[in-house]
Specification:
Elongation Factor Tu (Ef-tu), domain 3; 7-stranded antiparallel β-sheet; two-stranded antiparallel sheet; 1 helix; globular; disordered C terminus
Length: about 110
């Protein structure tokens, strides 16, 4: 699983984003979209406020990571989307770590 730290900011003013009910999609470019869980002390994210959060990209495992690893760079911007087309904010990637053992269930011996 890919784990990242990012600075996020929501840019639309329609509502607050509650991390309990909102699972954002991050656009890595080249039509590569992955959802992630926001992890922070904040439960609500407001428009135009910057937050430093951890993100667990639980859908990025070995094969997906091999595709996106060449484009991953600290400082890169990822669009935050709600659904496949609606951009609601921006995430600046600060750091990341990939651990191929997270999320793997061991088979019984």
């Amino acid at each position: 699983m890919l784990k990242a730290k990012a600075e996020i900011q929501f840019t639309i003013n329609e509502r607050k984003f509650d991390k309990k009910y909102f699972r954002p999609i991050f656009n890595f470019g080249n039509k590569l979209l992955f959802s992630g869980n926001l992890i922070s002390d904040d439960d609500i994210y407001l428009q135009n406020q910057k937050y430093i959060v951890d993100i667990d990209f639980f859908t990025i495992e070995d094969e997906a990571f091999s595709v996106i690893s060449p484009i991953l760079k600290p400082g890169m911007n990822l669009a935050i989307q709600e659904g496949a087309h609606r951009i609601v904010g921006i995430a600046k990637l600060l750091e990341y770590n990939y651990d191929s053992n997270i999320g793997i269930v061991a088979e019984p011996t």
